[in-house]
Amino acid sequence: MPPNATPPTHPVNLPGPVVFTHGDVVACNVLVTRGPHPRVAAVIDWAHAGWYPWYWEWCKAKWVRMPDVWEEMDDAAQEEWQQRWLPLVVGPLPDEGVYYPWLRFALAHV
């Protein structure tokens, strides 16, 4: 960044803490128990972990898709992960006030 440049501001201006978060909550990183009442047994691959705003985990998890090399994670399975299972792992937040502004910010800086 040039010396006189103003750093970009984040459009999601919600009060709240900065928290330590996983940063890559996708289906293959969440290990669950077998049986009729699955529970989260472990969360693996902490390479993207760090200190982020409290809403970061939900926004990033909602945006990220599994690589195409995973045959089990076709479009229908990815949709099921995001709609059914992700809200059980990471508490959901509203699209209008949190996710869409975060997404505009994220895509503007890729």
Automatic annotation (TrEMBL):
All copies of the Aminoglycoside phosphotransferase domain together span 12-82
Q: Which Gene3D superfamilies match?
A: 3.90.1200.10
Q: Which Pfam families match?
A: APH (PF01636)
- Name the UniProt record assigns to this protein: Aminoglycoside phosphotransferase domain-containing protein
Which species expresses this protein natively? Staphylotrichum tortipilum
Classification from the root reads:
Eukaryota, Fungi, Dikarya, Ascomycota, Pezizomycotina
